[in-house]
Amino acid sequence: MKVKFKNPPINEVVIGAYFEPTLTAFRSEHIGLLWSRLREDFPKVEQRPPIAGTNHGQETALTSGDEFMVMPRYWFVSEDEITLLQVQKDAFLLNWRHRDSEYPHYAESLKPSFDEYYRVFEKFLQKDVGVPFPTIGRCELTYINMITPSDFWRGPQDTSDVIRSFSIPDWASADGAPLAFHCTYGIDIDPNLQLHAALKTAEIADQPNSPCLILEIKALGSYSGDAKQNIDGWYDGAHDAIVTRFLGMTQERIQRELWMREETQ
Q1: 179-187 — which CB contacts under 8 Å span 24+ positions?
Q2: CA gap 25, 41 in Å, rounded
Q3: 138 near 20, Cβ under 8 Å?
Q4: DSSP string, 201-229
Q5: H/E stretch holding 76
Q6: Which tens digits make up the pLDDT trace of 136-176?
Q7: C-alpha span between 14 and 189 (Å, rounded)
Q8: In whole angstroms, what is the distance from residue 256 CA to residue 259 CA?
Q9: Pseudo-torsion of CA 258, 254, 234, 55, nearest 10°?
Q10: How far is the C-alpha of 237 from the C-alpha of 233, rounded, in Å?
């Protein structure tokens, strides 16, 4: 049985691959060539600081003689800003962002899109950079859910109506101060699949005094430099594990009445 939601609280999804070894031949001057292959779908390009610590704790860096250079992380952004590709010397990631759009679902859209753009990236590396095939040291699949005020959740004090077995200590609100918390949990599913769940209070962007609840579930898997086609099934297993964990963490009533849970064969 498969479970889907017509109205899921998903705010962002990240599908990523981190390379081992780092793509040292890939440099900033190649970005224009990569963009020429992506520009039709991603007309905007931005530079961001690289994600540190993706290569087993080592920052992405390039040294040449007495010079020290850090290649930026590049964002390729769709016109509607819903889809984002992130590329740096040791990482390739696809982000889906809510932006008042309907969640397109993992199997029907997100994973095929990741596969499609990863193939474009592989061809670019082969033809324009001279890298035959990047090898992957780590995989990631992350779901970030945002629970906003409704009849089911009006603020942090109602978190137990969303998250099963959750409780706030009496002393936490004894002085009348606003409730705030940030909890993290690690779950080992198997030797090559770890889930990291984080639950925290926050405010809705650009809406002061508008509380929300963020539930992030991140799946990580470690490999020893394997090609993507050999580990592609990991993402599907990670997705199933995330859905199972989400169903186990959240209350069935909100699943069915607000998020509109559906079971399919």
Answers
A1: 179/155, 180/156, 181/156, 187/245
A2: 25
A3: yes
A4: EEE-TT-TT-EEEEEEEEEEEEEEEE-HH
A5: strand 73-77
A6: 999 999 999 999 999 999 999 999 999 999 998 888 776 76
A7: 19
A8: 6
A9: 90
A10: 6
Q: Helix, strand, or coil here: 233?
A: helix
User: Which residue has 């405010």 as its token pair?
Assistant: 203
- Which helix (H) or strand (E) segment holds residue 75: the answer is strand 73-77
pLDDT the model gives residue 174: 66
Supply φ then ψ for residue 150, to 5 degrees.
Answer: -160, -170
Q: What percent of the chain has pLDDT over 70?
A: 92
Q: Identify the residue with better confidence: 33 or 1.
A: 33
The rounded Cα 181 to chain-centroid distance in angstroms is 22
Task: Write out pLDDT tens, residues 52-108.
Answer: 754 433 343 444 333 356 899 999 999 999 999 999 999 999 999 999 889 999 999
Other CB atoms within a 10 A radius of the CB of residue 17 amount to 24
